[in-house]
Amino acid sequence: MSAEVDGREEKGISRRRVVKGVAWSVPVIMTTVAVPPASASPGKYEALLDYANLQAATFVQFDKPTNSGQYRSGLGPTGFHLKNSSGLSSGPVKGSISISSTNTADPSVGVYSFSGGTLSMASTAPGKYTANFELQSGVANGTTAQFSLGFYYTGGSKTAGVGKKFDLTVSFTSPTGLLDLATTLTLN
Predict the structure, then answer these.
(1) Are 151 and 79 contacting, i.e. CB atoms less than 8 angstroms apart?
(2) Range 133-165 burial, b when 16+ CB lie within 10 A, else e
(3) Helical (H) or strand (E) element with 27
(4) Would you list the DSSP string of 127-172?
(5) What is the model's pLDDT at position 164?
(6) Widest CA span in the chain
(7) What value does the mean pLDDT take over residues 57-80?
(8) pLDDT of 81 above 50
(9) First-to-last CA distance in the chain?
(10) Most buried of 90, 103, 132, 148 (most Cβ within 10 A)?
(11) In terms of pTM, does the model score above 0.90?
(12) Mean pLDDT of 77-102
């Protein structure tokens, strides 16, 4: 660049000064956008659904859960997990499990067994099941919490509703910032 500046550019805004200012401000703006303040960052958590081989799931009959002759197969997750790599303990893990179908005729499905925390029934209505879960102790940094799910079906017939599908959603209220885990349950 030329070191000479004519009288017109000395006191005003020159193109050279504008270009120089933009050149210096772009990296600063990019850095500010790319790195949020630590207080705004929720940490790094990973929540995923867990599946058995070929997405196989077993449903027990609600009225006779110990009668293995009434078990029926289906497709769906066997649980979910939450991995904490945030650098801190997560604090309590809380959320809900919802299962619904637009077809409210029997059979319906719900969660029969749950491990990894506590589960409290919120509501059952035709075609809809909702329960809340909690792991009060939280998840230590660098560890993974496993939550296992077992499902039931309602109705007396083991063959009713073959192929019926249900929407399953696992939602987290804490730690914050986690996306819902959504999938489909299918009765065979």
Answers:
(1) no
(2) bebeebbeeeeebebebbbbbbeeebeebeebb
(3) helix 15-34
(4) TEEEEEEEETT---TT-EEEEEEEEEE-SS-SSTTTT-EEEEEEEE
(5) 93
(6) 97
(7) 86
(8) yes
(9) 76
(10) 90
(11) no
(12) 95
